[in-house]
Amino acid sequence: MLLPDRNEVAGLLARYRAQELEVLADPVDQDIWKRFESTAYTLCVLMGKRTALGAVEAAERYVVRPRAGRPSLQDRSLSRRQV
User: Under 8 Å CB-to-CB from 33, ≥6 apart: which residues?
Assistant: First the structure.
């Protein structure tokens, strides 16, 4: 299974959070809404989720380092290819 680049997901998540604040500050600006929805859609596709909330939650879990002593899915898939 291919996994998205952790840095790309982190950047997209930061952009989503910043745009979320812009929408709250000016909820009638259609251009802001379009950018926000586009970012939300991209997160959904990247994280394989149907809703923005699900995608944001998955992205937040993904960018946070895995628990100590437990390799991430990406690290496990890389180690299998190196064998």
Answer: 23, 27
